Amino acid sequence: MLVSNFLFGAIATATLGYGRSMPSSPCPPPLVYLFTVYATESPLVIIGNGGHGSRLFIPITGGTVTGPKLQGKVLGLGGDWGSYDTANKTFAPNAQIVVETNDGANILITGHGKSPYINYEFETGSESYWWLNQAIGVGIIQVGEASLTADIFQVLQCKA
Questions:
Q1: How far is CA 80 from the centre of its chain?
Q2: pTM of the full structure
Q3: Residues 58-88: tens digit of each pLDDT
Q4: Sign of the CA dihedral 68, 142, 99, 29?
Q5: Record's superkingdom (predicted)?
Q6: For residue 136, what is the DSSP state?
Q7: What is the CATH number of domain 29-155?
């Protein structure tokens, strides 16, 4: 018992930082604005309720990306396989789009969450945008008539 308590304490200190004094309140991570996606959509396809809410598919047909960290166009290669919870009136996006930057890089953007708040992950083989592979994004979407707008921010490490 003494050995297991010692090992747990050593592992917790080494991996979780429990050896540090605890702050009086946590430091909120700062956000940095990356870009805004303006996407066009085709009419949605209703798949129906298969046990996860009312499943639907929204084809993404194009659009643009503008912002301080990224500029380009949305390729018509993606869509949103989201579900709508009719009881709570919430939409849970499950979207993937491909952005082609103005300098020729391709970036896969994946978004999940509960509308209007979305979590984003990025994937690219481009050296210029490699930093996005480690980035976590958060954003807010606004749905329009046959379009959506997503303001996307990068979550940075807190510097307490």
A1: 13
A2: 0.83
A3: 999 999 999 999 999 999 999 999 999 888 8
A4: positive
A5: Eukaryota
A6: -
A7: 2.40.160.20
